[in-house]
Specification:
The complex is a heterodimer. By secondary structure, chain A is an alpha+beta fold. Chain A has helices at 3-9, 28-38, 48-53, 86-93, 178-182, 195-202; strands at 20-21, 98-108, 118-127, 131-133, 136-149, 152-164, 207-211, 214-216, 232-235, 239-248, 260-267, 272-277, 290-299, 302-309. Helix content of chain A is 15%, strand content 35%. In chain A, a hairpin with a 2-residue loop joins strand 4 (131-133) and strand 5 (136-149). The relative contact order of chain A is 0.11. The radius of gyration of chain B is 16 Å and the shape is elongated. The chains are: A alpha+beta, B alpha+beta. Chain B: It holds the Pfam family MaoC_dehydratas.
Chain lengths: 310, 132
């Protein structure tokens, strides 16, 4: 289990934030405003006689307003830190800055009456394993709210949010020249599987997935032998030998120098990787020759791995 | 309790998603998250415009069922799955169908769809005839 997940799961069963008590009791002006916004015309929410005729002791609040009463106040600049939830902040700090609510369930013990003051207490109910979703990699956090009036339970709510890493940043140059615009250098497609590799390249490191000591490349979600989704990321020394190679003459794509030696290098860690040779005469490239990894800045902020003779 | 059978449909409701509707709902539900009233703040998060908050979606779902069941039924629970956001300029078409009848307990399955897809899928549980 990741350190983040361990820290987040330590919150399960504990209050996500201190209880919040409504600043105003259940009241007619707020009910009226809610009914107007929703187009609600059920008379039991506004008319005493209609409410009694329907068997209520008097005017009652729409059940969907259960979680409205104790909401955080408006404040210029947004919520205070105390009104936030530390368990969610853990994910923000780890880069899971996206948040989207996915499920809400409310159970109403009884309808709320005018004058009642609602207190809301959220408990962290669950933190999921890491999930791959359409929005990005993330964790579902489930919060269980108890609503009380003078200690009497009046309703419950479970609220599930996804905390996710927003769509992965794709490499792009800040201000491409007119020529580069016409013939942009091809870019890798950054995916959830290979993002770590390209982040490593940007730090001039060659990173590989390792499952029980077996390194693999190109990056993928699963260990080919066991099907395991678990892996560690290890840094390679960059030393290796040419396992195979080609020298590109045609077609001549813009942005490359020709003739271009492209090598398949077997690294000393046992994993193979394809990259361009640099500072090498094509005729000097031969199978078995020792090479060492380097990094070429194609455009500002866009690096590619390459090899040169050791 | 009126006669209710499984499979019975509810009349559809069309909700125009205007900026006014979104903001009115956000204020009525005490929800001051800026993405529900401030277009620039919403766009800064990578979405095209302000969008409806959950409490308002819940409000429309329950108002929709309430239009149909009237004041004699009690809303006992709601179970909501959220999907495509309701952005300004869209239209939400709400449909519903009775999915369970057991004694005086009735489930209504509600779906609110917009141009992107299903905004909300909900089951509303009603208690009918049991006057408190």
């Amino acid at each position: 289990m990741s350190e983040l997940l361990e820290q987040a799961r330590a919150w399960v069963g504990r209050p996500a934030s201190p209880p919040a008590t409504a600043r105003d009791p259940v009241n007619l002006p707020m009910i009226r405003r809610w009914c107007e916004a929703m187009g609600e015309t059920n008379p039991i929410y506004l008319d005493e006689a209609a409410a009694r005729a329907a068997g209520h002791p008097g005017i009652v609040a729409p059940p969907a307003m259960l979680d409205v009463w104790a909401m955080a106040p408006y404040r210029p600049g947004g919520r205070t830190a105390e009104e936030g939830m530390a368990v969610l902040s853990l994910f923000d700090a780890a880069g899971y800055t996206g948040v989207v609510a996915t499920n809400v369930r409310q159970d109403y013990g009884r309808y709320l009456r005018l004058g009642e003051v609602v207190t809301s207490t959220p408990i962290v109910a669950d933190v999921s394993d890491e999930k791959r979703t359409a929005l990005g990699i993330g964790h579902f956090v489930t919060l269980a709210y108890d609503f009380t009036v003078d200690g009497e339970p009046v309703g419950r709510m479970t609220f599930r949010v996804l905390k996710f890493r927003p769509n992965l940043a794709q490499p792009h140059s800040a201000e491409p020249s007119a020529e580069a615009k016409a013939w942009p250098h091809p870019r890798p497609a950054i995916t959830h599987d290979n993002a770590f590799f390209w982040e490593g390249v940007n730090q001039r490191k060659l990173l590989f997935q390792s499952c029980e000591g077996r390194l693999r490349h190109p990056p993928g979600p699963m260990d080919p032998l066991t099907g395991s989704l678990d892996f560690e990321i290890v840094e390679a020394s960059g030393r290796g030998t040419i396992h195979s190679f080609v020298v590109m003459h045609q077609p001549r794509l813009p942005g490359f120098d020709y003739p271009l030696p492209v090598v398949l290098v077997e690294l000393e860690e046992g994993v193979r990787i394809v990259a361009n040779m640099i500072d090498a005469a094509p005729e000097a490239v031969e199978i078995g020759r020792a090479v060492v990894a380097d990094f070429v800045e194609i455009e500002p902020g866009y690096l590619l791995p390459a090899f040169r003779f050791a | 309790m009126k006669t209710v059978t499984v499979g019975q449909g509810l009349p559809e409701l069309i909700v125009p998603i205007t900026a006014s509707a979104i903001v009115a709902g956000a204020i009525a539900t005490n929800d001051y998250e800026d993405v529900h009233h401030d277009k620039a703040a919403a766009q800064a998060t990578g979405v095209p415009d302000i969008f409806m908050n959950i409490l308002t979606s819940n409000g429309f779902v329950q108002r929709y069922v309430s239009d149909w069941c009237g004041p004699d039924a009690r809303i006992a629970a709601v179970d909501i799955r959220l999907g495509a956001p309701n952005f300004v300029g869209d239209t939400m078409r709400i449909t519903g169908e009775v999915s369970r009848v057991e004694g005086d307990e009735v489930d209504v399955r509600v779906s609110g769809r917009n141009a992107i897809g299903e905004h909300v899928a909900a089951t509303v549980t009603l208690h009918w005839g049991a006057r408190a």
